Amino acid sequence: MLNRGQVGAAFGSAVAAMGAAGLPVTGATVPEGYLLRTRYLKFVYEDEQNSCTSRTHAHPEHVVFWPEWSFGAVEVRGELRTVSLGEGLWVPAGTPHAVPERDGDLLALHITPAAVPGRGSSVAIVQMIVAARELLLYLADAGMPREERIQAQRVCLNLIATDPTPKIHLPIPHDPRIAQICRRILVDPADDQSIEHWALQLSVSSRTLARAFRVSTGTTFGQWRTLARMELAVRLLDQGVAVGDVARRVGYRTMSAFSVAFQRELGTTPKEFHPSLVR
């Protein structure tokens, strides 16, 4: 459990930094001696002066914003950031931010900096898995002994992953001809059929099809197929499939070629993504 000295030191340094920056400074939201507190932004609290508003402000605590059902938006340092279900936006203590709308399903998880020393020094997307979200919502309403609550809060902090799983965003085609090709690729990303093959199937020239593919998806045929392969690769790696097997299933003859493509698209190698699966 945090002692008063730890909490006081963390709170004092954060307030000093915010004051020096000329920002409106809220008070502490987390009760003394505890690690975190979750609040629904659509509700009004007894300490409303410490809540988030549409006016730029900062807190002496880290804040993780996350949606209960769909998505939400937070303005951080003048940039609008959105989060979807399953994600959270980690805003470090002292970081200027504002919440444009408070009538949605956005929640704010305030975390005492001393509870997570050395963690969360920059704005980042974090994973908010179902277990973490459900436990945080339970703690927001349930009554329980102090020590039990602190233990549960520690579990919540451990469940919030600061290294989110890489995501692949596949552009959705609006041209029915391109959609037909994309569906086939998604069924079998390892299919090596060329764009010339697909052009022949559709009775158009390869140049016409290539142009239509770019207009419809914003990417080339080859780029879209690579993204489809990486999307499947991430899912297979998450399921525990060995890297060598994943490489073969998504159309690469060698692990080295797969690793190069994976790193180019996701910024990390398959080994770094799941080091235990390299075999």
From TrEMBL:
Residues 179-276 form the HTH araC/xylS-type domain. One of its GO terms (molecular function) is sequence-specific DNA binding. Signal peptide: none annotated. Gene3D superfamilies: Homeodomain-like. PROSITE patterns: HTH_ARAC_FAMILY_1, HTH_ARAC_FAMILY_2. InterPro entries: Homeodomain-like_sf, HTH_AraC, HTH_AraC-typ_CS, Tscrpt_reg_AraC-type_HTH. Keywords: DNA-binding, Repressor, Transcription, Transcription regulation. The keyword Transmembrane helix does not apply. The keyword Signal does not apply. Pfam families: HTH_18. This is HTH-type transcriptional regulator RipA.
